[in-house]
Design brief:
30% strand, 4 helices, Tetrahydropterin Synthase, Chain A, alpha+beta, 136 residues, single chain, five-stranded mixed β-sheet, 6-PTP_synth/QueD
């Protein structure tokens, strides 16, 4: 029997959707106002879900406190109130789209969660726009 536990979190961050190898005109055409040279920000919502078997000794799939600490260490501290393009090493050469942010978060958390568990990330960029990533 497998059960899914989830933990919600949030962080505020600025970014600019931009490719260094494209002209300003092409970036503007593809990314529009999200290509603002002065950046723009979002209040990101994050849901991290872990699916696995319940441990018969603890009754937990995973202690939610452990999951909360992982999210704090891997996402909230490095991303909150940061400029993703300038302050977060993973985005130095990676366009910080919601899709890429979700994959980066998944990879950072995956290394801290045992491979017996499935991991899913849902990243809300706005109330209406969100990305789900479950790994490859």
């Amino acid at each position: 029997m497998k059960v899914t536990i989830s933990r919600k979190a949030h962080f505020n961050a600025a970014h600019r959707l931009h490719r260094k190898d494209w002209t300003f005109e092409k970036n503007e055409a593809v990314f529009g106002k999200c290509n603002n040279p002065n950046f723009h920000g979002h209040n990101y919502g994050l849901t991290v879900s872990v699916t696995g078997k319940i441990d018969p000794e603890t009754g937990f799939v995973l202690d939610v406190k452990v999951l909360a600490d992982i999210i704090r260490d891997e996402v909230e501290i490095p991303f909150d109130h940061k400029n993703l393009n300038l302050d977060v090493p993973e985005f130095q050469d990676l366009n910080p789209t919601a899709e890429n942010i979700a994959v980066v978060i998944w990879n950072k958390i995956r290394k801290r969660i045992h491979t017996d568990f499935d991991l899913e990330i849902v990243l809300n960029e706005t109330d209406r726009n969100f990305v789900t990533y479950k790994g490859e």
